[in-house]
Amino acid sequence: RPFGLGWTNVQFPHLGPSCSDVQLPELPPFWAQLGWIALISDVHADVHSLDAALHHIADLGCDQIVCAGDLVDFGLFPEETISRIREREIPCVRGNHDRWSGRRRQRPQS
Description:
Layout: H1 29-32, E1 37-40, H2 47-60, E2 64-67, H3 78-87, H4 96-106
Parallel strand pairs: 1-2
């Protein structure tokens, strides 16, 4: 396993100890040219948790962030959450909750 770091070792401040002591291992030469990629998903409009995750990703020194979707639904801050992703130009696929949310907006009002 070239990526020997388990994400279960990373904790957020509001959930427990900081991950400031976690360091990414050195990548083998072939993988080093690709760098470290952070994957986020299932944010569900919780902009505060997204901000915490982005802060820790920056502390870890990841080279790129990608999002696997489900930015909206459930949480209170969908616009702010989407804005954070757009501001940082994080590539993101549309999750099922994102798709459902878009369909609800497109329904004609009776």
